[in-house]
Amino acid sequence: MRVMYVTGGHDETYVRFGEREEELQGVAVARVGRYERDHMCDAPANSSVGWRDPGYVHDALLTGLKKGHKYYYRVGNDKGGWSATHSFVSRNSDSDETIAFLFGDMGTAVPYNTYLRTQDESISTIKWILRDLEDLGEKPAFVSHIGDISYARGYSWLWDHFFTQIEPVAARVAYHVCIGNHEYNWPLQPFKPDWAGYGKDGGGECGVPYSLRFNMPGNSSEPTGTGAPPTKNLYYSFDMGSVHFVYISTETNFLPGSNQYKFLKHDLESVDRNKTPFVVVQGHRPMYTTSHENRDAALRGKMLEHLEPLLVNNNVTLALWGHVHRYERFCPLNNFTCGGNVGQKAGDGKSYTVHIVIGMAGQDWQPIWEPRPNHLEDPIFPQPKRSLYRGGEFGYTRLVATKQKFVLSYVGNHDGEVHDMVEILASGEVVSGNGDCSINDAISDANSKPGSQVVESTLSWYVKGGSVLLLGAFMGYVFGYVTSRKKSEAPSNWTPVKTEES
Asked: DSSP assignment of 134-180, as one string?
């Protein structure tokens, strides 16, 4: 398990950990790193307006953990003091159960007016995930945040707000990420073909805070072509229970011949389906969407041309995407054609992958799908048959899986209830429909045997049964952030009114 945190100094710090809160006998030394203003690639990140000293990032790897055990830990040193005590449940590699909370485009919220619109709905997303974690009790789980992480976009203090906001979650379960346009894109980025539509959405950060503040598995990196450190955490994979998870970058080169393409091809071809019968691929920009994303049309075309064959020919169960700030679930797809099941015989041209867009965790610019009074000039985007469910509700998704069954639920922020579900059996059969269940109901359902429940309608959901879903936390992955920050009061003339985003 990896623990990361930020302090104001570069003195050596430690993580003390153990199975009893009063006996933290294990010790891990933290590696220390930081980035500088001259590492930023453009304004506002390298300007006096956007720059703020990020402090020092401490990174400690906890080893020798027992499987599926609860551990307590705190960080610091005797000179500077110690943090509060936190806890996590270690990975249990003997279990085939998997629990995860997945979303994109969350951001953070600040209680004052600033240069950018911030994401108030991110507060509710964290609140409901915390509710689910409390219900889980002492079971391992992880978070997957697939791009557009903090929406700092060059205003570095927003990163501090983000980590403070996620700390209650990220201090107890692993927090996985992949890169999005708002972490990376800038005018001189190395891979920028005319068709890609990459702009300057990163605010001059060019992936530097993202690369230093997170430490994902693997060693993927790409040079920035500037004095900045290489961009890291681009593509990687890991097994968690019965699911093989793959993360990719839609912001760097994914074409045949690139390092990323070679990684993805080899990784998908090497999956042990006896161990992990389900495979989930995640990236930021979607391969399929019915929203108005004309700027990315050519990029989606390249993804469909080069990446979709890797998905369908290697029986990928599910592809998750962000970028569009809505929830949208598609039928099992292969080149815009719906199929009944996923993962048919590999390479026979009849394989299909379920695609779901999950960029609804906080950012409040939303595509318009239905007519609005007095806004007749706004474009409307009809829902084709391949789009089975489109939701305008902010929220997140919840994954529960065993070797028999894979269940993904869409939880809405306004009520914390399930608004959509898709269930995929190990046979490849897909069942979908609206449902309403708690995290423990979902766990029970995932552990029930296929066919053991009566389905009254194809639009109703398996919300009964008994299963204990859980795939352990993972050794060596980013686990949590315990932030140390200066507290300052906002000037009294600042107001909590958000400005319009350009």
From this structure: HHH-S---EEEEES--S--TT-THHHHHHHHHHHHHHTTSEEEEE--
